């Protein structure tokens, strides 16, 4: 299964996915890492792993999401991906693009969905006084952070946690969860995976 990974920043989740796909018995192979900015640090990390990279800067499209996504589709063509993993990709995709990739595009979100869709998830969990927090991998649908859940990993919220300390604890679990879910997803296994920590 040819896997495209979309990033916007450092790509630590992308690195975890690529490194796991390089191990034995994985039915997925990374065909391209695509970023919406040439400054995305993950591009160098993909290149040093020998994975092709592509950049489609969203800024020239200034809010014309459909035109931006058409440029993405064109950029993907040479790599012929079978599916897309969004990994720290910070652009919202339209219903049209989601429909085109329905059932073939997954995302990792740093909360225990359906709680805390959107941004600032760690601060919101602290604000709410939650004792447990975590991350979720889900199928992407037209509604933001809303598709079927494929996996979750939980972490404890500790005394004195800040959004930064909590985010760091969650990120460690993201790097466990996302590869574990992708390994199954590419075999057609959609059964939800719950990781404890
Ligand atoms: C992190 O905050 C992570 O929780 C979320 O996207 C951000 C960047 O992740 N998934 P990455 O290091 O670029 O994968």
Automatic annotation (TrEMBL):
Enzyme Commission identifier(s): 2.1.2.2
Pathway field: Purine metabolism; IMP biosynthesis via de novo pathway; N(2)-formyl-N(1)-(5-phospho-D-ribosyl)glycinamide from N(1)-(5-phospho-D-ribosyl)glycinamide (10-formyl THF route): step 1/1
Pfam families, A to Z: Formyl_trans_N
Site residues, Raises pKa of active site His: 145
Swiss-Prot/TrEMBL catalytic activity: N(1)-(5-phospho-beta-D-ribosyl)glycinamide + (6R)-10-formyltetrahydrofolate = N(2)-formyl-N(1)-(5-phospho-beta-D-ribosyl)glycinamide + (6S)-5,6,7,8-tetrahydrofolate + H(+)
GO molecular function: phosphoribosylglycinamide formyltransferase activity
Domain Formyl transferase N-terminal: 2-182
Alphabetic keyword roster: Purine biosynthesis, Transferase
PROSITE patterns: GART (PS00373)
PANTHER family linked: PHOSPHORIBOSYLGLYCINAMIDE FORMYLTRANSFERASE
Protein name listed in UniProt: Phosphoribosylglycinamide formyltransferase
Species classification: Bacteria, Pseudomonadati, Pseudomonadota, Alphaproteobacteria, Rhodobacterales
